[in-house]
Amino acid sequence: MNGQMMQLPLLISSLIVHAERHHPEQQVVSRRVEGDIHRSTYKAVAARSRRVANVLGSLGVKFGDRVATLAWNGYRHMELYFGVSGSGAVLHTVNPRLHPDQIVYIADHAEDQVMFFDLTFLPLIQAVAGRTKTVKHWVAMTDRAHMPADPKVPGLLCYEDLLDAASDTYGWPEFDENTASSLCYTSGTTGNPKGVLYSHRSTVLHTMAAALPDCLGVGAAETILPVVPMFHVNSWGIVYLAPMTGAKLVLPGAGLDGKSLYELFEGEGVTISAGVPTVWQGLLAYVDANKLKFSTMRKSAIGGSACPPAMIRKFLDEYGVRVIHAWGMTEMSPIGTAAAFKAQHVSQSAEQKLGVMATQGRAVYGVDMKIVGEDGAELPWDGQASGDLLVRGPWIIDSYFKNEGGHPLVKDAAGHGWFPTGDVAKVTPEGYMVITDRSKDVIKSGGEWIGSIDLENIAMAHPAVAMAACIAAPHPKWDERPLLVVVKKPGAELTREQLLTFYEGKIAKWWTPDDVVFVDAIPLGATGKMQKNKLREQFRGHRLPTA
Ligand code: AMP
To answer: Which of 10, 231, 395, 460 could form a disulfide linkage to 93, CB 3.0–4.6 angstroms apart?
Structure first.
């Protein structure tokens, strides 16, 4: 027997429709790349999103087509979030920190039809425009007055011109909630970047969970500022969550330095913010140096990399801001766990509370997790045993876009699929997860991935290199930076500087290893694979020259 309730699909368009009806005058404030502060409302964002949907139709975008963005956090990007997904096309948010070769690769892989970009990224667009196979239209997200005189991008279109010419009358189509809504590529796995294809259903469910009190805890009286970029897992869902809850939304654009962020926090009365630890270091350094205080901020969600306990303590003791340490992945939309208290923690000492806040947190409803040993058997939650972390839930990946990399899920005895996160963790008896290591071969610098394999392949192409392994070395500012461990060919001459120069032009500059060490041998496992865990152990205390 079925329940007799309405069958309404969970669609992304419903979020902006809700905000327009129930929070029409709530503000959306953006720092523009043009330099000024722009003020909008949910009513205006909704109307302009409908114009975007009409523009897409006129550009020939069909249901299911991919539409790319290369853009900062701003209202135009937000309009694309709703206009593209809401009309049934797929929003592909491209990470502008990637090397142009990688951008060409993913644009081709995604078969992007249109690319919208902020003016900041014009040089990047000039580097890729002639090389992509499927992009038919390039659109600069600006008005006529700011259009570049000689853009060197054939047929470049102007966003505001397109919107002006389009009607704001548009009926959001109703379709299956399992339809693809958006696409994010992650380099957090080996090999080429892989696409994670979200659905309307997964996005709406994730947004509801993200708003829960023990997660980001957002309501209509809050003002939220996502520092985490809209090109990195949909800014952790905040651009959906704000219209769902009716919170005021503040979008920082390209101004991610301490001063610019602080001005927005204070000027707009921001109460909640979210970002990777590196950003907060810059902000705290600015606030410290200028002896400032936060007058409205209460909560700061920190994740993407481990948040140092010293940062949690500083935020709380000196500024009265509670850190919500959270963990997740692109493959998880991204939120998996958040470190909120249980009743028994409330009366504990400050030190004990810090211990709870410093964990990666408890599973949010919708996400189940377990840790397993090498034999795949589940390990106890005793705060001691550490094993591979597996997750499952309705906003967790089943397979990568175009089935790249085969089927990643691991089946349990009951036949349920679990996604192996590549993180190694332990879990306390109270259910708080603590990341202890990582089994995947990647380096996370300032919240962004650096592919170790790419760096090794380049080193291996040098005639003097016999074997190369790239591992993450600890770095005080960036959390991790690449360290290259190299075995030279017998009799070959090679210096650290020569090898580092060899990387020039082959990768994004910030991917270049911070250091090279020459060794006699790299430990190999039974199958001949380099044992990077042993290398990581060996170089745990290595001090990078940049540290
Ligand atoms: P991404 O897909 O770029 O969001 O990266 C996901 C990965 O970042 C996870 O698998 C972890 O390795 C790492 N990560 C995310 N949040 C945290 C955290 N709070 N503590 C430690 N590592 C984290």
So the answer is: 231
Sheet holding 272-275, edge to edge: 37-41, 27-31, 248-251, 223-226, 272-275, 299-302, 322-328, 335-338, 362-363
Q: Which of 331, 448, 456, 480 is catalytic?
A: 331
Q: Please answer whether residues 530 and 524 qualify as being in contact, where contact means their C-beta atoms are separated by less than 8 angstroms.
A: yes
83 lines ligand 1 (CB under 6 A): no
**What is the 239 CA–ligand 1 centroid distance (Å)?**
20
pLDDT in tens, 97-151: 999 999 999 999 999 999 999 999 999 999 999 999 999 999 999 999 999 999 9
Rounded to the nearest angstrom, the distance between the alpha carbon of 328 and the centre of ligand 1 is 6
Rounded to an integer, what distance in angstroms lies between the CA atom of residue 207 and that of residue 408? 24
Domain 13-23+38-201 has CATH 3.40.50.12780: yes
Buried b (16+ CB within 10 A) or exposed e, 181-210: bbbbbbbbbeebbbbbbbbbbbbbbbbbbb
Whether the CB-CB separation of 278 and 232 falls below 8 Å is answered with: no
Q: Where are the domains of the chain?
A: 13-23+38-201, 445-538
Q: Please indicate whether residue 43 is annotated as part of the active site.
A: no
Respond yes or no: is residue 179 known to be catalytic.
no
DSSP 295: S
Q: In this structure, which CATH number among 3.30.70.100, 3.40.50.740, 3.20.20.80, 3.30.300.30 belongs to the domain 445-538? A: 3.30.300.30
Query: Both tokens of residue 289?
Result: 């140096």
Pairwise CA distance, residues 253 & 35, whole Å: 9
Has residue 461 got a pLDDT over 80?
Answer: yes
Does the pLDDT value for residue 170 go beyond 80? Answer: yes
User: How does pLDDT run across 400-447, given as a tens digit for each residue?
Assistant: 999 998 889 999 999 999 999 999 999 999 999 999 888 887 899 988
pLDDT of residue 525: 74
Question: 33, 216, 238, 25: which is closest to 119 by C-alpha?
Answer: 33
Catalytic residue among 69, 142, 179, 186: 186
